[in-house]
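**Tokenised fold:**
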Amino acid sequence: MIILENVKKKYGTKEALKGLSLTIPEGKIFGFLGHNGAGKSTTIKMLVSITEPTSGNILFDGKKLEDNRLEIKKRIGYVPDTPDIFLQLTAMEYWNLIAAAFDLSEDKMNQQINYLADLFDIKHQVNNEIDSFSHGMRQKVIVIGALLSNPDIWILDEPLQGLDPQAAYDLKELMKEHTKNGKTVIFSTHILDTAEQLCDELAILKHGELIYNGSVSDLLEEHPEKSLERIYLEMIGREAEQSHSNEEESDFGGQEDE
């Protein structure tokens, strides 16, 4: 179980999160929804220790993240919001780097690479540089790296972006299977049909604040005859989307874009 207690984050004078408190249970697919700038990626980056809260606590199974960072990071597989990393490495070199970081045995590493590279249809290109790959191929490399150690907790920031339909389907099936085994999947998405299809629970953020946290089924029951897409758009409002689009145009290159 992951608990966020009144977590706040500031970038200069901008308050990206305004006191986020929620619980992410084990054995669930937990989705983050929100407009650009709502705080989704900020939250995810704090969960994986890329950035730290300005205040508040994050706990994994009762242990504070700030006091047990290395131990907790070993339990996490992370897909960032862009696959444009380690471009000078080949796919195999990148996976070897990840395997070393997680102390995987050579046998375990090879077993996982064979399975995942075959599943995502990238086996024939494992010795090519990531820089030579399309966006979708780079995404596959990063996804495989995140799953290589078979971690308890998958934290995936827009993981389906750029994947071809078969790869997207296969990743969604892996996410479902992972939670059937009592593990945790946390992901952000702008694809509301995918969120409705996959998520057991949701957190919807608006302007750095939590406006809904609960099950997808409960939310749909509260709004009969409406899709998640319609419910979400009514909760967020066109004004939020437009105002943040304007902010991004005037503040291009800001630190928080999700």
